[in-house]
Amino acid sequence: MSKATTTHPVTNDVFKAVYDSPTSLPGRFKWLTPDRDVRRIEKLLGMAPNTIGAPLWVSGNRKSCPKCERETNWLDIVSSALGQVHRREMIARVILGEQKFVNTEAPRAIAGLKCFKCKTAIDNIRSFKCHNWAYAKPALLEVLERLRTR
Fold this sequence. Notes:
By secondary structure, the chain is an alpha+beta fold. It is built from five helices and five strands. The longest helix is centred in the C-terminal third of the chain and has 13 residues, at 136-148.
């Protein structure tokens, strides 16, 4: 028996009601992934520099890795998911695409999350989101085409 999915495509209205405001994110802290780590995400996904322009939000009860103190963010989420859970193309669609997704795992921690720097298990992140922008669609198609040809 396969595990039931906890991430579902939703309409814009449902997305707005659940996630549109960063203040709606669960956890004590809410913060943005720093630009330097967004650029590292682009490299991991095989994207051209500055492809990702939307803010990548994270929330949790602690902001950093318990071992190395590196601030936890989307770089940890993407690097943990690549190869184990999702393909590059799927992650690019989530970040750049127009389809909105809602994850129903909250309030549990994000399963399988590891620190990008030291690989320590991270159990303090409660949610993550990005604001998908309308202008991203043409960019998304170009990025996906480049990823397919590699």
